[in-house]
């Protein structure tokens, strides 16, 4: 490795559900500038709520052009923040997982001939055949069952692809498009994940899908790291493989940045674009979790993540190819009712202030005098269930009109109990070396993290450097992949973890019986088939 003195910086993006974030780090991995664009408020013309548009039968989509316009906007905000684009050696990114982008015929040629004098969104206005189905979509149950059957059953599909069929996974979404909108399918030149779509904008051509995010499709053989032929055949026609392109390791340098960015923003022509990946994969790369540590992403979804050394087929949740060479595989468990559900009930119970919600929580005790609740404002992924609310008192009776303070705690304790119960079903074991490492928008809420610490009976940490591990992970991956590729040593080191919540000594006594009650409660919830 050589040491160089010229200033080197790295750029990371996170195209998550509700906003687009960007960060510039130095070669010491210290954050230098950042910017973000919130879809609902900054781009109201797309009429999204929480970054998405909901249909009547579980369809959840986002207008693809919204993300392109958000990129135009975030780039301008980085300019205003004083970013010197000429010092950026490499960039990478993360994006919400599973969602698909349907590129119209001729769009790759548009991507490679962009005029630097105009915004991306005006030039790509006709580049997408349909809006993008996203991870909250629950409209493909029939396609999931058909995919499982075609591959030899749910266990076989899980053995091959790391997961039984899930509605939001891209394979069943593609199958639904092929089955119900065949003209749109046929008019499609390429299908990207949201991560590889975002990467394509920087690369000036369609970027390959990376193996880690590609494992969230139910189409990839996570052992051979190639598309599973039977799964492809079940989801589309013989053009599907070429529509997807061959997947690549997440740590690949895909090429130099497109001339559009060089001319419009002053990037160096040899600034490298490193493959983009899923936000949870990127968070895992940002966390550097040790054995026994679990990542807890509290973004729009609540997601639990852990690194694995081998691709064990999970009884619940998903196994993905890992995002770095050090983390060959990862396990993931995703709950759809995360921040937006907390936010909805905060608004209902006290209005728009998190401080007022905290006051409400403080009027209750840990264990909530027996009140427990399960609140789904959107179809839940784990367990598979439709929207609904189930609140009961200590004696197990349905609580008819619980006071707002009991509801506030029942919501948060119910969520944490669900995370623990289903993590245990996935094989997660708690011992004295366990830790939760939290990230995402809600990880600033100390009371919420205290509830997680108590329910898991495990200390909770956060990253000192940044509250968004997916975003920081994207910039660090750009730096590390560039460093290995260029043979140039960087000074950055492991992120620092700070403790934010420690379990009280009586936590186990309070929450173990509640865990049993949670398991009984979910048996009575009508499941989606
Ligand atoms: N103080 C807080 N307490 C709890 N949740 C919060 C707080 N501040 C922000 N949030 C939640 O963070 C969410 C956004 O998190 P973020 O990680 O940006 O989402 P995503 O990455 O999915 O777009 C919002 O929906 C909001 O409810
Ligand atoms: O579907 C999943 C993971 O399987 C979600 O976690 C999405 O990746 C959305 O992420 P956030 O926007 O909630 O971070």
Automatic annotation (TrEMBL):
<dbReference type="GO" id="GO:0005997">
    <property type="term" value="P:xylulose metabolic process"/>
</dbReference>
<dbReference type="GO" id="GO:0004856">
    <property type="term" value="F:D-xylulokinase activity"/>
</dbReference>
<dbReference type="InterPro" id="IPR018485">
    <property type="entry name" value="FGGY_C"/>
</dbReference>
<keyword id="KW-0547">Nucleotide-binding</keyword>
<dbReference type="InterPro" id="IPR043129">
    <property type="entry name" value="ATPase_NBD"/>
</dbReference>
<keyword id="KW-0808">Transferase</keyword>
<dbReference type="InterPro" id="IPR000577">
    <property type="entry name" value="Carb_kinase_FGGY"/>
</dbReference>
<dbReference type="InterPro" id="IPR042024">
    <property type="entry name" value="D-XK_euk"/>
</dbReference>
<keyword id="KW-0067">ATP-binding</keyword>
<comment type="similarity">
    <text>Belongs to the FGGY kinase family.</text>
</comment>
<dbReference type="GO" id="GO:0005524">
    <property type="term" value="F:ATP binding"/>
</dbReference>
<feature type="domain" description="Carbohydrate kinase FGGY N-terminal">
    <location>
        <begin position="134"/>
        <end position="286"/>
    </location>
</feature>
<dbReference type="GO" id="GO:0005829">
    <property type="term" value="C:cytosol"/>
</dbReference>
<protein>
    <recommendedName>
        <fullName>Xylulose kinase</fullName>
        <ecNumber>2.7.1.17</ecNumber>
    </recommendedName>
</protein>
<keyword id="KW-0418">Kinase</keyword>
<feature type="domain" description="Carbohydrate kinase FGGY C-terminal">
    <location>
        <begin position="296"/>
        <end position="479"/>
    </location>
</feature>
<comment type="function">
    <text>Phosphorylates D-xylulose to produce D-xylulose 5-phosphate, a molecule that may play an important role in the regulation of glucose metabolism and lipogenesis.</text>
</comment>
<keyword id="KW-0119">Carbohydrate metabolism</keyword>
<dbReference type="InterPro" id="IPR018484">
    <property type="entry name" value="FGGY_N"/>
</dbReference>
<dbReference type="Pfam" id="PF00370">
    <property type="entry name" value="FGGY_N"/>
</dbReference>
<keyword id="KW-0859">Xylose metabolism</keyword>
<dbReference type="Pfam" id="PF02782">
    <property type="entry name" value="FGGY_C"/>
</dbReference>
<dbReference type="GO" id="GO:0042732">
    <property type="term" value="P:D-xylose metabolic process"/>
</dbReference>
């Amino acid at each position: 490795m050589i040491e160089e003195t010229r200033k080197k910086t790295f750029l990371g993006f996170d195209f998550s559900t509700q906003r687009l974030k960007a960060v510039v780090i130095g070669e010491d991995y210290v954050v230098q500038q950042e910017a973000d664009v919130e879809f609902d408020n900054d781009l109201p013309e797309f009429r999204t709520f929480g970054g998405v548009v909901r249909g009547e039968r579980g369809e959840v989509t986002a207008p693809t052009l919204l993300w392109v316009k958000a990129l135009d906007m975030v780039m301008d905000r980085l300019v205003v923040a004083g970013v010197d684009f000429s010092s950026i050696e490499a960039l990478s990114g993360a994006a919400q997982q599973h969602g698909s982008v349907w590129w119209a015929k001729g769009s790759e040629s548009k991507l490679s001939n962009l005029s630097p004098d105009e915004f991306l969104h005006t030039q790509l206005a006709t580049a997408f055949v349909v809006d993008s189905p996203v991870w909250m979509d629950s409209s493909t149950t029939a396609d999931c069952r058909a995919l499982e059957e075609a591959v030899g059953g749910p266990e076989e599909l899980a053995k091959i692809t790391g997961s039984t069929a899930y509605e939001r996974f891209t394979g069943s979404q593609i199958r639904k498009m092929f089955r119900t909108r065949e003209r749109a399918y046929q008019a499609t030149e390429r299908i990207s994940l949201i991560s590889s779509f975002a990467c394509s904008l920087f690369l000036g051509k369609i970027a390959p899908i990376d193996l880690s995010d590609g494992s969230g499709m139910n189409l990839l053989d996570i052992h051979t790291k190639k598309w599973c032929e039977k799964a492809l055949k079940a989801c589309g026609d013989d053009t599907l493989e070429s529509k997807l392109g061959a997947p690549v390791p997440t740590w690949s340098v895909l090429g130099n940045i497109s001339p559009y960015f060089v001319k419009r923003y002053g990037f160096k022509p040899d600034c490298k674009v490193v493959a983009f990946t899923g936000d949870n994969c990127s968070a895992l790369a940002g966390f550097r979790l040790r054995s026994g540590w679990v990542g807890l992403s509290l973004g729009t979804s609540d997601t639990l993540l852990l690194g694995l050394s081998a691709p064990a087929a999970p009884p619940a949740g998903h196994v993905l190819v890992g995002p770095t060479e050090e983390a060959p595989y990862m396990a993931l468990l995703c709950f759809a009712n995360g921040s937006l559900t907390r936010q909805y009930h905060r608004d209902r119970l006290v209005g728009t202030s998190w401080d007022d919600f905290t006051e409400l929580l403080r009027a209750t005790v840990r264990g909530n005098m027996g009140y427990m609740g399960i609140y789904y404002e959107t179809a839940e992924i784990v367990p598979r269930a439709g929207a609904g609310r189930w609140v009961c008192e200590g004696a197990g009776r349905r609580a008819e009109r619980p006071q707002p303070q009991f509801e506030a705690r029942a919501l948060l304790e119910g969520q944490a109990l669900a995370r623990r119960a289903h993590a245990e079903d996935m094989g997660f074991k708690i011992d004295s070396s366990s830790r939760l490492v939290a990230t995402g928008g809600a990880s600033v809420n100390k009371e919420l993290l205290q509830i997680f610490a108590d329910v898991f009976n495990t200390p909770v940490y956060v990253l000192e450097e940044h509250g968004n591990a997916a975003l920081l992970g994207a910039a660090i991956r750009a730096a590390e992949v560039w460093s290995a590729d260029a043979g140039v040593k960087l000074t950055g080191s492991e992120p620092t973890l700070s403790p934010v919540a420690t379990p009280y000594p009586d936590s186990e006594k309070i929450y173990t019986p509640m865990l049993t009650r949670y398991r009984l409660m979910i048996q009575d919830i009508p499941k989606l088939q």
